[in-house]
Write a structure and sequence with these properties.
Elements: H1 3-39, H2 44-51, H3 71-80, H4 89-99, H5 103-114, H6 122-125, E1 140-141, E2 144-145, H7 150-165, H8 173-180, H9 188-203
Antiparallel strand pairs: 1-2
Helix pairs in contact: 3-4, 4-7, 5-9, 8-9
Length: 211
Amino acid sequence: MTRRSLLLLSLLLALLIVIDVQFSLARSAVASSFWSRLLAPLPASVASSASGSSVVSPSASRVIGRPSLSAAFIDRVLAAYRSPAVGLGQALYADSLRFGIDDVYALAFFWHESTFGRYGVAAVTHSLGNIICTPGFSSCVGRFRAYPSWQAGAWDWFHLLASEYLPRGLTTVEQIVPVYAPAGENDVSAYIRAVEAAVSCWRVGRLEVRL
């Protein structure tokens, strides 16, 4: 082999070595980028979705929603308090689905207003929330609306919130109570605390509320 041939062969080998080194570096960079992307923390929205939780937690006192309580559990609560409205659970659950208002709030207002119909005018009116009588309403006892049954009283409570409160943007307990039970006649802060305490209690399966 001549000197010229050896020189050409050496140059060819050197070129092949350079190409191999560059290819190895490029492959290493691609692999590094791949693993960096693979091991990087998930974006908050993706991580939250994977864990089954929402990025934005809904307000605990927002009344809009599906029923939190089953009809059977509602009846257990009413029975624990020896309420004359025992058996109302199915109606509350059905009204909750119909109006899109969580049934736990109807039960909480009922508890706070009359201890489930045991005390006050509600024992006569069959009203969940001692709703003030308005002109043209079919039946009233004193200042309050009266109903032929607890089921009718429950339906009117849900209808009142759905037609008079939610359209005005009043969707949380904190927004609803000052209008529903004004400060001139009620302790608004105490009312809100009582409702939220009852809701928290029943959502974890306890029957009796402890303030």
